[in-house]
Every structure is written in C-alpha cells, then in structure tokens.
Design brief:
Elements lengths: L12 H8 L15 H15 L11 E9 L8 E2 L24 E3 L3 E9 L2 E8 L6 H15 L7 E5 L5 E2 L6 H6 L5 H20 L3 E11 L4 E3 L11 E9 L5 E8 L12 E3 L1 H13 L5 E6 L5 E3 L4 H5 L8 H21 L10 E9 L18 E2 L21 E2 L8 E9 L2 E5 L3 E2 L1 H14 L4 E5 L8 E2 L2 H4 L4 H4 L7 H13 L38 E3 L4 E3 L3 E8 L8 E7 L6 E3 L1 E2 L2 E2 L7 E8 L12 E9 L13 E12 L5 E7 L3 E4 L1
Parallel strand pairs: 3-12, 5-6, 11-13, 19-21, 20-22, 24-34
Antiparallel strand pairs: 1-4, 1-8, 2-7, 3-30, 4-5, 8-10, 9-14, 10-11, 15-18, 16-17, 18-19, 23-25, 25-31, 26-27, 26-32, 28-29, 30-31, 32-33, 32-34
Length: 676
C-alpha cells in the first residue's frame, strides 16, 4: 500500500498516530443487508454448481482450466492505496465512499483472473485480483465460500494475489491500515468483493480441465519501470518472467502469466477513477496480440521500489493525437512495451507436455522473539511503524534517519502471522511474499531458492496470501525513508520472511524437510460491521440521452449517453459493434481476437445522478445518466489501433423500476461512419 503516485505525498500522519493506538479491527456484527440482486445472483450460481459437483480428472495428465469475472463494486466507491489528503466538501461524494474521494469514472473495471492447474490429486489455483493487497481475512473468507459451494477445501492449494492497483476498490480491509489507506471498512461491500473473487474459482473447479503443455521464459524489459527509492543508489532488476499454457489438442493458448515489478500508480486518488491501472493494461494489450485472446495474468515480483515507466517512443512515432487524459496513453505504452517483450520470446518458449505439479503452504508465526533481535536493536514488542520519521532521507538532503524512533504498535494492531507458499510447475519454482518486496530482497530470495532447491528457475509472487507492508534487507531498512517506515517488524522482517519461504520451498523436493520457522494456527474468519444500502429506483431508464455522431474522422473522441440504473445494481456492459458488409448485420468489433468493450482500455465510463448524491432522492428515485467515452484511434500500435467502417455501441444493464423490481435493459446507439 502506498502514499504516492509517481512520486511521494504525505500520509495523514496525525490520523495515523491517533488510529494506531486504537483497536480498529472490526467486531462480529452482521451487515444487516442483503446484497441486492447482483450478489444474490452470485450466491445462486454457487448453489447451482453444487448439484453437478466439481470436475474429476480421468487421468494423471497435467491439466488446466481458466475463468475470469468482475469484482462486483459500484462506481462511486472509494479506492485503496493512498493516504488521501485534501478531502473536503468539494471532493466527489457517493453513498459508497466514506472519508475518501468517490470514484466518478471507470477504466477497465476491476477483474478476477483464475488459472486452475491439476495433475492427479494435486491442485494449484492461481488467482489475481485488481486489489491493493490481500489481507488474511480475504484469503480465509474466499476459501470458506468456495468450500461451501464445491466441497473442495483450498487452504493448501490457493495462491491469492493482488495486482496492487492503487485505483482498485477500497472498504474491504478490516484492520487498522484499512481505514487509513482503503477508506473505512464495510462488511456489505467486502462480502460483495469476496464473493466476486470466489465465483470464478468455483467456475474453474466445476469446469472440465483440459490437458495442457507448459513452458516459461525469463527475459528483460527496462523501460516499463524505474527505481523510485532515493535512499539507496539507483538500481533495478528488469527481469520479466513469462509462463505459457498451451492446449494439447492444438486449439491454441489457454493462458499466459507475466511476472514483473511495476507499481500500479499511474493515477492518483484525485483522478477519482476506478481502474486496474498499469497491470491491467499490460494484460489487455498482451491478450489482444496473442492468437485466440487467452487469459493473461499480470503478477507482481519485487515492485516495492519500482514505479511505472513512461515509454514515449510510441507517441513520438504516432500520427494520432494525445488523448484528452494523457495517463491513458502512458498506460497503453506500458502495455505495448510488455507485448513486444512477450512476443519476442513467445514462439521460442519450450513446451513440456507432462509437467510435475506441487504446492506447499504454511502459516508462520510473527512475534518479536522469532526475528532474533538483540536487546536494544528493535525494542518494540508488537512492532513499530514509521521508523526514522516521515521524511525522505536521500543523499545530500541533510537528513539522517533515526531508525530507533518508531510509532509503537499496540498488540491489537500487530500482525501475528502470515501465510507463505511455494509451488512448482515443471522445473519452475514460485515463492510468495505477503507484502511489497523491494528489488534487492527479491534477488536475495530467488538466488537462495535457486541455489538450495532442485528448481531450474525461480520467480517471486509478491502481494500474495496476506499483507505485512514493505519488505527490505536489513542494511536497506537502515537507510530509512518511506519504504523502511512502511513495515511493522523492523530491519529483520524482510529477510526473515524471505528465509522462511525459501526454507518452505525445500518441501517441494522433500515433503519431510524440517522447517526453520514456528508454525501458527490459521486464523478464523470473522465478519465485521457494515451499513446496508437500498438502491434508488430509476425515474427513467433505457433512453438515449446523447447519441453518437453519424460521421466522424478517425482519431476523434466520441461519447454516447443513456439513462440506466443505480450503480449498486448497474454495471453496464458496452460492446462496440461493426457492420459486416457481407451479412448486413452488426457484429462485435475485435482487436485481435478480443472483443472491444468496457472491460478494455479504449472506453471510459462515467455516471451522473440527478439529483446528485449530496442531495436526498425523491421518493420516486433518481435519474442516472451513464456515458461511455470512446477513442477511435490510439497512439500505440495494436491489432485495432484505428477503428474503421460503420460502428455502433450496444449497452445492456440493470435498473430498479418504479415497482421496486430489478429490470434488465438494452440500448443501441445509432450507426457512426468513421472515415480516414
């Protein structure tokens, strides 16, 4: 979790100091609300899947299934990742944000991606979410929901990760840090998010897994990230790991995993945008370039000190103008840079038809005595935050960090244990760390895994299974600064966790290998407090408010507006369609094999309620004006860099009608001719 976007801004220190001495963990209250028709649908689907039972493989082949799904949150929710300062009466408000900016637009809405691997009785489930981080309650609740629906207990099989977008939804972290960096916790919203994560996992468990081959590559990309930590000398490791899963029946690629270090901080919180940010754009640009549009999953490695880069070469070579929001051009440039790197090695990846599969997971105790501190070295029994102060300690700044000065954490705000996981696919070993690993610690860990295990290569998957703040080597921690201050257990926390998960990886070779760390009993999920929300009825819906123009030149930004529903129930699906001159019918417009819709990078959605959220609605409800903003050309190359021909937009969604029932609607735009 972060307090800056492409730079550093102040965390609300006074608020942090006050809250740190309070018990901010949620109680055991109920949310007192059903989750509306959207969440009811999720629960019904899970109940229906029980009737058929999970898929059972007929043989010992290496198999896979994949699924994706939206994270079910309303536009207007506060985001997570920044300590939001400057929030005032003039900042955007909604019923779904508490003390943070309410989001007013959405670019590629948050998603869940799942790759389910099987070989005989061994199962590995890789899950990526567009969240700031994974808190232990997320893991426990998702395991619980999946088991209720399928009978399969995934505690030892699940790797739950976060893309670390700083514009993903907030209000889902039931801990002290949640109120500071993710807006206040709300159990109703958290349950929606956690059911959203569980559902595609359930789908993969119920779906037939097909035989696949597997291969990987380790390559380099230097322009997608940059070292943002000033306290140590400039340094970055540009390794990009690429995993490829190919269907054995010859029908094409099933999935790709990109493992790289890059913060999701293109947008600041003042942008009031809900988005998967840079990691999601990488997935989208790579997906459209690969035949068959396979599932693409971006996973973070040592991103703790790596800000996103800004490749400008595409804009310099493009005949098309900069977008009205230049952040979108930077996102696409990052995605295209990743695409070029993936394509440069994709065909050369050596594929094995029968890869071994293994996974080990354990809970490690975090307690002051397990780190091996000498008296006087780090005398904070339950941890300490912001050691060294709140400034930057860059060379030449004249500041010196005082690393023995920390804000002590009370016992109830401590982090007493974490989940660690190691897995192996073929010769590749993956290890997880529950936080923001900086580059040097990531290198230390992977060198240790490679040297001490039978793996042929190793990759780090950070922001996984739990969250413990920033993770650094002791000498780097001693330099102070934002990253050093943003952990809890002091200079030895990072290396202790790295040594522990490296030790755990030995059990991939020898299940009886001794462990170097103390095991903890898994924590039990407890619900917290929540506030019910009743969606407003729509005074009118399914009407066109502003249509597309009938004719434009390529490169023009256009918009289409309609009346829809309260965002609690309405997350509109918008598809771009192109006239097929042979059949005379409109068909989905594709970029490569990927349909162009609101989940991609070309459309931005906004919503304006009348009356505004700051005014009470009339008894009959509100009017919700939704708008999709469409780019007809983008600066970066791609399969459909320029739109052409006769196109239209088709919108579908949900609204509460005047009887209080949930109704579906569909609205087409008029045709628009795009000329060169």
């Amino acid at each position: 979790m972060d307090a800056y976007a492409n730079g550093r801004c102040a965390v609300p220190v006074r608020l942090f100091c006050v809250l740190l001495v309070l018990n901010a963990c949620g109680g055991t209250g109920s949310n007192g609300d059903d989750l509306s028709a959207v969440s009811d649908t999720t629960e019904t689907t899970a109940m229906e899947t029980i009737q058929t039972g999970p898929y059972q493989p007929p043989d010992e082949q290496f198999r896979a299934s994949v699924a994706t799904g939206p994270i079910n949150v309303p536009l207007g929710i506060g985001t997570a990742g920044y300590g939001q300062t400057g929030v005032s009466d003039d900042t955007p408000k909604s019923p779904f944000a508490d003390g943070f900016y309410a989001t007013t637009r959405v670019l590629h809405p948050p998603m869940v991606r799942v790759i389910h691997l099987m070989k005989g009785e061994v199962r590995l489930v890789l899950v990526q979410t567009d969240l700031i981080g994974i808190y232990f309650l997320h893991f426990e609740r998702v395991v619980e929901i999946v088991e209720e629906a399928t009978g399969i207990h995934l505690r030892k099989n699940l790797v739950l990760m976060a893309s670390h977008t700083h514009t993903g939804p907030g209000r889902h972290i039931n801990h002290l840090l949640g109120g500071i960096l993710a807006d206040s916790y709300d159990d109703v919203i958290a349950e929606r998010i956690l059911h959203s994560i569980a559902q595609p996992i359930i789908d993969t468990l119920m779906t037939e897994s097909v035989p696949v081959s597997f291969g990987y590559s380790l390559t380099q990309n230097a322009e997608m990230h940059k070292d943002r930590r000033c306290e140590n000398p400039p340094y970055q490791n540009d390794t990009m790991g690429i995993l490829r899963f190919e269907r054995l029946d010859g029908s094409g690629s099933m999935a790709a995993v990109i493992n790289y270090a890059m913060h999701g901080t293109i947008f600041g919180y003042q942008a009031a945008i809900l988005s998967g940010d840079a990691p999601r754009t990488v997935e989208l640009k790579v997906q459209e370039a690969l035949p068959g549009a396979p599932l693409v999953m971006f996973t973070q490695s040592w991103a703790g000190d790596m800000a996103p880069g800004n490749p400008t070469r595409f804009a310099e070579e493009s005949p098309y103008p900069q977008y009205s929001d230049p952040n979108l051009d930077q996102l696409e440039a990052l995605g295209r840079s990743a695409t070029e790197t993936v394509l440069s090695v994709w065909d050369a990846i050596e594929l094995a038809e029968d890869s071994d599969l293994a996974i080990v997971s354990e809970e490690a105790v975090l307690r002051h005595d397990v780190f091996g501190y000498e008296p006087g070295e780090f005398d904070f029994e339950f941890g300490g935050a912001y050691c060294g102060g709140f400034g930057d300690f860059c060379p030449g700044s004249g500041n010196e960090p005082k690393m023995d000065i920390c804000i002590p954490a009370p016992e109830e705000a401590s982090i007493p244990q974490v989940r660690l996981t190691a897995f192996r696919i073929g010769g590749l070993t993956g290890v997880t760390l529950p936080g923001e690993t900086v580059t040097t610690l990531g290198e230390y860990l992977l060198n240790k895994v490679s040297d001490e295990t039978e793996s042929t290569a190793a990759m780090l998957f950070s922001y996984a299974q739990d969250y413990t703040g920033y993770l650094l080597l002791p000498n780097d921690w001693a330099l102070g600064g934002y990253e050093a201050g943003g952990n809890l257990w002091g200079p030895k926390q990072g290396i202790y966790l790295a040594d522990s998960v490296a030790n755990l990886a030995h059990r991939l070779d020898d299940p009886n290998a001794p462990l170097s760390f103390e095991l903890a009993t898994p924590r039990v999920y407890e619900s917290g407090d929540g506030v019910g929300y009743s969606p407003d009825a729509s005074l009118v819906f399914a009407t066109v408010e502003e249509d597309l123009p009938t004719q434009i030149t390529v490169g023009t930004e256009v918009s289409f507006s309609w009346t829809g529903g309260d965002p609690w129930v309405d997350q509109p699906h918008v598809t771009l369609e192109q006239l097929d001159t042979n059949s005379g019918e409109y068909m989905p417009y594709r970029s490569g094999d990927r349909v162009i819709d609101e989940t991609g990078y070309r459309m931005v959605l906004t919503m304006d309620p009348t009356p505004p959220w700051t005014v009470s609605a009339a008894p009959e409800g509100r009017t919700f004006r939704w708008t999709v903003h469409l780019r007809t050309a983008v600066q970066t190359p791609g399969p459909a860099q320029v739109l052409q021909g006769s196109v239209r937009l088709l919108v579908s969604g949900h609204a509460i009608d005047d009887s209080g029932a949930l109704s579906s609607y569909s609205v087409p735009s008029q045709a628009m001719e795009i000329s060169q």
